[in-house]
Design brief:
single chain, alpha+beta
């Protein structure tokens, strides 16, 4: 998969196409991470989430609701956001790495997966879904 740097980030839009943000791959504490910059907010996600989410969507075999939520809000069962923080996922918990900024996986990672050709993402005002390609 393509890996962009801070000097050449992916320029993406949220699924409803209402907000722009940037992402790139970096290393932190010996681990590859995805750095997501939304305005002045910086979030980190485990790079492994791309392959793991793609495999989960392939196994699911159909559209799945994104269900994006902040870390302090409970994610709905059966959504991409729920999976990204579940103890049943391949890393046994949160793919988001910065305390208090671990949520919103389903807002920011799906457009990157779409840009990388791993998934198809809906772009409605709300209740968007994704599926593996």
């Amino acid at each position: 998969m393509e890996k962009r740097t801070k000097e050449n980030p992916w320029k993406l839009k949220t699924p409803p196409l209402t907000s722009e943000y940037e992402m790139y791959v970096a290393e932190k504490d010996g681990r590859e991470i995805i750095v997501c910059t939304v305005g002045t907010t910086v979030l980190h996600y485990d790079y492994r989430c791309l392959a793991d989410c793609h495999a989960m969507l392939q196994a699911h075999g159909d559209w799945m609701l994104l269900g994006s939520k902040d870390e302090k809000q409970e994610a709905s069962l059966g959504t991409v956001e729920f999976w990204a923080r579940s103890s049943d996922n391949p890393i046994g918990g949160w793919y988001g790495l910065k305390k208090n900024f671990r949520g919103r996986f389903a807002m920011y990672i799906p457009p990157l997966m779409e840009a990388l050709g791993l998934a198809e993402v809906e772009h409605n005002k709300r209740d968007n879904r994704m599926r593996a390609i």
